[in-house]
């Protein structure tokens, strides 16, 4: 791979004998366990499950009450309800593989039932099968000949895997695999490692899933760095995000705000839709798999690999996998909005829904839920959404539905309840020399050293008067001297015409505005510094197509732009293709609109669409349906920003601006 790690390898012919020996040993151990009396030893799978539950080593394990039963009742899931549970609550496990679902427990039961099945008659010790032939009679690559259950490889903190990865902390342990936080000693970085026995029937599927996930190369997914089979061990190495928090941890204190839930579902859906376009599916998208970094970016862990580790069955065709991932995204959004798990069982520290609320939209479960997000979650989660809404069955459809929603604004930060006024404000000084003030008993007086005395105020006032007088005298002297100089010239040269008349017809920098030369814009771009997407990107060319009957609309806003508020405006960036000397810009709007003409400075010249508004210099501000900006001197620039600060109200009650045409002259 690109970072120097090893690629996925296949079992070679040299490992065939080792596989056969491991298989025979596993069968011998299972046979010996089944032949033992019920009171002598406990069932191996029950012991593993008790270890997963965190039982003490000396805790006795109850034997199977009915050892002759061929298979467990699929409806009784108590013996595996805790398989794969998280580490203790006091331990930081932000990147842990999620617990088993109902389908996964059924898969474990099916596998475990076969392994625990007792033969009709005990096989004598002399008849036990021994690996006498070094060449196996069956193809070891045929996974049907491999055991369906093998215990997870036993490893300890400090062990080294592949002469490179040092295990630090076990964060998850199940009957078939374990997950560790480890250190890559070669590159000196933290990584995550999954360990599984190579003789397990799922091992090859895990390797294939890890290889396909590594080839995805999408930074929105946690990257798979290594996937190797070495002897009796299969391990998958992935990227580790030490400062990220999973969605289950983010929901520990309550539901998300609408803006944060919108950001989560939008980013997760975009990533999953991109993976499906490349033929990949996650198939086990849970709150434990969705991680939020410090920068607010959401990343997805365990694509394809988690499902292979858990032994989830492959979905029938592309449609099945797309519906599975879409339904999982709907469940994530449901949990983020309601702080409830949308199924009867309690999962991920969330309480499940009672039977009476099945197929209920989030706004029916909890009051105050955003209506648009509630409908989106119901359409993605349920096959028959409430109110006869059309279900969403693919991530691509969900992406389009999110794009059609009005953008949810981020809540404004709360201001302090009693902001302290500035102590020295020269603009608010009273005009009276000694004003009479009434003391407010609720406000504590300032210290004596910080209160301005009357003498200080008198001195400041005197200094301002002296400065104003000096400026007045200086300007008067300049005016008198200029008048005397002109009068002297007239007296000494009466027949000479004034110099101003000789130069009145000479060209000036402003004269070029009388003969404008049209400059055709090459492109129109959306400038949305506090947004995450272009506003009406499909209609941007209509602002420069030369047809005033077509226009580029902005988003519809519930409130007017306010200076200093969450959003002060939105803009249209005009690209001239190359630098031109611009003299004037004419903009035609639909409805009375207030706009500024801004020109990028050196900081915004390279990428003006991502530059902050402070990187643009305002050269004019006007209001109306047609505004003309005339520059005092020609300005060489490639980009022009039409910054809209006040929008007209549309027929739907929203504040929406529309730019019909932009004309540039040089």
What amount of the residues lies in strands? Answer: 15-25%
What helical percentage do the residues reach?
25-40%
- How many extended strands? 17
Largest beta-sheet characterization: 6 strands, antiparallel
Order of helices and strands: HHHEEEEHEEEHHEEHHEEHHHHHEEEEEE
Keywords summarizing the entry:
666 residues; single chain; 13 helices; alpha+beta; 6-stranded antiparallel beta sheet
How would you sum up this structure in a few lines?
The protein has 13 helices and 17 strands. The protein is of the alpha+beta class.
Detailed description of the structure:
The protein has 666 residues and is an alpha+beta fold. 27% of the residues lie in helices and 20% in strands. The chain has a 6-stranded antiparallel β-sheet, covered by helices on one side.
What is the topology?
Blueprint: H1 16-35, H2 44-52, H3 102-116, E1 160-161, E2 165-173, E3 177-184, E4 189-197, H4 203-216, E5 224-230, E6 233-239, E7 245-246, H5 247-250, H6 258-277, E8 290-292, E9 298-300, H7 305-310, H8 317-338, E10 340-341, E11 351-352, H9 362-365, H10 371-381, H11 395-403, H12 454-492, H13 499-502, E12 518-519, E13 523-527, E14 552-553, E15 570-600, E16 616-646, E17 658-665
Parallel strand pairs: 10-11
Antiparallel strand pairs: 1-2, 2-3, 3-4, 4-6, 5-6, 7-8, 8-9, 12-17, 13-15, 14-17, 15-16, 15-17
């Amino acid at each position: 791979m690109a970072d120097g790690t090893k690629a996925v390898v296949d079992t070679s012919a040299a490992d065939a004998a080792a596989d056969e020996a491991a298989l025979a040993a596993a069968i011998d151990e299972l046979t010996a366990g089944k032949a033992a009396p019920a009171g002598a030893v406990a069932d191996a799978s029950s012991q593993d499950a008790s270890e997963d539950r965190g039982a003490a080593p000396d805790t006795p394990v109850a034997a199977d009450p009915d050892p002759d039963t061929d298979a467990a009742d699929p409806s009784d899931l108590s013996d595996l309800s805790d398989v794969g549970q998280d580490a203790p609550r006091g331990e930081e496990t932000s990147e842990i593989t999620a617990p088993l679902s109902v389908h996964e427990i059924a898969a474990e039961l099916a596998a475990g039932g076969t392994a625990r099945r007792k033969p009709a008659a005990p096989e004598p010790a002399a008849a036990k099968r021994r690996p006498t032939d070094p060449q196996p009679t069956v193809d070891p690559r045929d996974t049907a000949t491999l055991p369906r259950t093998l215990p997870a490889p036993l490893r300890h903190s400090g062990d080294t895997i592949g002469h490179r990865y040092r295990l630090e902390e076990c964060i998850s342990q199940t009957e078939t695999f374990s997950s560790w936080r480890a250190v890559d000693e070669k590159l000196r970085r933290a990584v995550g490692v999954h360990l599984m026995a190579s003789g397990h029937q799922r091992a090859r599927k895990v390797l294939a899933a890890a290889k396909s996930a590594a080839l995805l190369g999408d930074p929105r997914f946690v990257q798979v760095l290594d996937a190797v089979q070495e002897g009796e061990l299969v391990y998958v190495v992935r990227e580790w995000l030490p400062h990220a928090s999973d969605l289950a941890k983010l929901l520990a204190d309550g539901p998300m705000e609408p803006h944060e839930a919108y950001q989560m579902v939008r980013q997760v859906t975009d990533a999953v839709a991109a993976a499906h376009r490349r033929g990949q599916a996650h198939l086990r998208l849970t709150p434990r798999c969705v991680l939020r970094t410090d920068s607010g970016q959401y990343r997805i862990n365990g694509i394809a690999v988690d499902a292979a580790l858990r032994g989830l069955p492959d979905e029938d065709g592309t449609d099945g996998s797309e519906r599975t991932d879409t339904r999982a995204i709907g469940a994530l959004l449901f949990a983020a909005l309601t702080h409830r798990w949308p199924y009867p069982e309690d999962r991920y520290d969330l309480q499940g829904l009672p039977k009476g609320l099945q197929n209920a939209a989030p706004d029916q479960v909890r009051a105050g839920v955003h209506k648009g997000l509630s409908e989106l979650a119901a359409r993605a989660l349920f096959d028959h959404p409430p109110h006869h809404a059309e279900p969403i069955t693919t991530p691509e459809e969900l992406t389009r539905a999110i794009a059609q929603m009005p953008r949810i604004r981020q809540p404004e930060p709360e201001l302090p309840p009693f902001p302290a006024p500035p102590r020295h404000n020269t603009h608010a000084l009273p005009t009276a020399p000694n004003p009479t003030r009434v003391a407010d008993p609720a406000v504590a007086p300032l210290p004596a050293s910080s209160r301005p005395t009357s003498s200080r105020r008198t001195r400041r006032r005197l200094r301002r008067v002296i400065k104003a007088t000096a400026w007045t005298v200086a300007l008067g002297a300049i005016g008198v001297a200029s008048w005397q100089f002109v009068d002297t010239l007239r007296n000494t040269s009466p027949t000479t015409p004034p110099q101003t008349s000789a130069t009145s017809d000479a060209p000036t920098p402003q004269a070029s505005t009388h003969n404008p030369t049209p400059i055709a814009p090459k492109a129109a771009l959306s400038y949305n510094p506090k947004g995450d997407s272009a506003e009406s990107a499909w209609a941007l060319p209509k602002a420069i197509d030369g047809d005033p009957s077509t226009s580029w609309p902005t988003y519809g806003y519930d409130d007017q732009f306010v200076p200093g508020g969450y959003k002060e405006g939105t803009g249209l960036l005009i690209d001239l293709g190359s630098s031109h000397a611009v003299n004037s810009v004419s903009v035609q709007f639909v409805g009375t609109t207030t706009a500024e003409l801004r020109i990028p400075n050196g900081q915004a010249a390279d990428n003006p669409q991502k530059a902050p508004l402070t990187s643009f210099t305002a050269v004019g501000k006007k209001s109306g349906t047609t505004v003309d900006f005339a520059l005092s001197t020609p300005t060489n620039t490639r980009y022009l920003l039409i910054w809209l600060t006040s929008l007209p109200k549309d027929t739907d009650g929203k504040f929406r601006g529309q730019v019909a045409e932009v004309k540039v002259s040089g």
